[in-house]
Amino acid sequence: MSETKLSHTQSQLEYSRAKQLMPGGVNSAARAFGAVGGEPIVFERGEGAYLFDIDGNRYIDFIGSWGPMIFGHQFAPVKEAVHAAVERGTSFGAPTVAENELAELVIDAVPSVEMVRLVNSGTEATMSAIRLSRGYTGRDLVIKFSGNYHGHVDSLLVAAGSAAATLGVPNSPGVTEGTSRDTLVLPYNDCECLTETFKNHGDSIAAVILEPVCGNMGCVIPTPEFLQTLRQTTEDSGSVLIFDEVMCGFRVARGGAQELFGITPDLTTMGKIVGGGLPLAVFGGKREIMQHVLPAGKVFQAGTLSGNPIATAAGIAMLKALRDQPPYEYLEGLSKKLESGLKAAAEAHGIEHCIQRVGSMMTLFFQNGPVLDWESAAKSKTDQFSQYFWGLIDHGVYMPCSQFEALFISAAHTNDDIEYTIKMADRVMSEIAN
Ligand code: KE4
């Protein structure tokens, strides 16, 4: 169901214009509402916990630009830092002090990171981390997990083959057999399959990459045993363990999932929050590995706008705020309240549900759960999710536009916002139930 009672006249006009200019009228597929039907809403501005569309509707925003807005939109320290930086020029293509400052703040926050390289997107970070792992180990194979998304890196746009632990098959036109041949796709949280794969391929595996808290199949949490097995098997075989913390980094804790779970990866990719909403991401980790990146080492990596003055200014302001006024306790209180409120609403109307949450990222699955991997996530009733999504839109609440995403709460959200959201969710759930 994608009809909505709010007026979206201007949005519809702008969106039909956009569809003539850009594929699907968007600059990222995730925004096109493909998973919920209907047409995307066109926004004019964000302020704190709210988004305002071009028809003048206000929404409580639970996407937060897919993660970066942990302090809400127009966070003053970031805004001021960006304005000041613009006065000094937007890009020099040469070293600046700000890059050193941001690098030190990342290293200070994330336990396993001794050295970093700044890039422009999460995709660039994971692509570079994979290349570095292959260059460092001299091996070809990379393991990823079904339901994990690491950006549109050719070698990671790979679906699981027919049986588990088979060589991947391209899951996008344009990705060649050759590119996917070196990628193994395993089920998430499956220790046996992981151990078996290392037994069969161990000394050809360059790296394992995973979301240490998943957001891209909805919020799926690794079991402690899975994390330990990952660390042990990669250590034993000399493979690189890459935590893709582009989404959960600085989100679930200042030091990310690795701080929360006490597991130390070899490399970490970070994005979203670290750039304060500007195009900036990071890959980093053990100095011994990072020293292989050109020009210190031989693994090629470069980028015109990497570490540019505006994005680094935003990132510095963001990481200083996370260090000096950590929002995590406040976020935990609001997130717990939202989780229990949504649970109560679903229970009250007999809707099958399972809520999975780590800190201020969570997913309401329309099924009984538990959701441990892609196979179980895929059992969710996505039609009910679409009804829930559009029903909330009508009440001015903007949830992630897919069952297989996580929602994010920010430090700009208030108790009132959460209570209102729960109330509206209760109304929408009663409509779904009848
Ligand atoms: P970007 O290239 O979009 O900056 O980052 C790719 C990426 C890498 N790793 C993880 C764990 C990610 O979640 C992402 C991007 N996340 C999606 C949301 N599921 C971004 C939204 C979009 O693609 O527009």
CATH architecture of the largest domain: 3-Layer(aba) Sandwich
CATH topology of the largest domain: Aspartate Aminotransferase, domain 2
Q: Helix fraction? A: 25-40%
Spatial strand sequence of the major β-sheet:
4-12-11-10-9-5-8
Structural class: alpha/beta
On the 0 to 100 scale, the average pLDDT is 96
The distinct bound ligands, ions and cofactors come out as: ligand KE4
Contiguous runs where pLDDT drops below 50 for at least 5 residues = none
CATH class of the largest domain: Alpha Beta
C-alpha end-to-end distance: 14 Å
Short characterization:
By secondary structure, the protein is an alpha/beta fold. 38% of the residues lie in helices and 15% in strands.
